[in-house]
């Protein structure tokens, strides 16, 4: 009897479209992550939360719910705290491009199956639906197999299901889960609703103005990332844009995942999609306390191929808690950068480096690039790094700083000059961990004082 209603549920599964109308999506699949939370109390598991409404009562089982974010008073996106599982039933490549925080991927159709059904749909919608229903039944049956995440859920579990737009894919899965007896809800509007909420929030200047940022500035190699790590380790809020973007924000800024012992091969970690980057930004900022300082490294509006939302970028530049300029001698910066980018001093790395340097020709000229590649060939690494800093990176940093100042009003520029501080490091031709800790502590104290002063000024204004 179970398999009868299981298959019947899948007959309402999917309203497919011809392959030609499918959105182009990335094929790399991220590792599945899921949030573990305690099951609801026996008396509460069946009760709806704000935003839920009963969309039908399958015979002999739990009601089927619809969760509508527009009907909630304060929730921007579904909270993992309200659900034992948030299930994304889209294909693996759709999930890899971006997904809701805490969601796991249980696709009702794989990428290949979705393509196959879409191709058939162009010829016969009836045959496509028939094929799709069987595939959905098989895939959800496997997802419920012994040892799976679903098989371990108690009856009191709450499950939120979503697909691209809250249509047939999520409806089929939610219907089956409710027939089993779980509290299952389909997200109204699906992933599109979540994505719209993230964009509306991140690109809203009024919302971004709630945050208080302290900006760490300084040319390449001035230990900004190390200072941020030290500040985070002491329990303060840090928004590390380079980590979220999977890029160090320069021509040589790719993140490498691995290399062989002799340096003959290396692997570059691909950056996330723009959508996934914005999801990461949203998740971090949403969890941060607007009353406390957030420390952030100065970045251009673009990190690698990813764009920082304009409202967020402008607020970071405004730096209500202060701008802290790190000043480090060139010789120490060279030594530091050679450690950070040591991968380029390997056989495979040096080849990759020369390719990357070619990208600088339009800005710095062919003669400069030829000089740098010659230094690579001769393994004159310290000379190369110093030359790049003096004739490319420091100039690029100054240009970016001037661009940032032009993006704000003259009055704001005057206010920035009043809370601009220079932090000198490396007076003894080296920078110790202790010196970094002292600098981080001083930055935190000054930033907190600035915010306290601003709050006091506003209170008496």
UniProtKB/TrEMBL annotation:
Name of the featured protein: Rhodanese domain-containing protein
Residues annotated as domain Rhodanese: 85-203
Keyword Metal-binding: no
UniProt-listed GO biological process terms: tRNA wobble uridine modification
Keywords (A to Z) from UniProt: Selenium, Signal
GO MF: tRNA 2-selenouridine synthase activity
Signal peptide from the UniProt entry: 1-21
Classification via PROSITE patterns: RHODANESE_3 (PS50206)
Organism: Aureoumbra lagunensis
Top-level lineage group: Eukaryota
SMART domains documented for this protein: RHOD (SM00450)
NCBIfam families for this protein: PRK11784.1-2, PRK11784.1-4, tRNA_sel_U_synt
Xref: Pfam families: AAA_SelU, Rhodanese
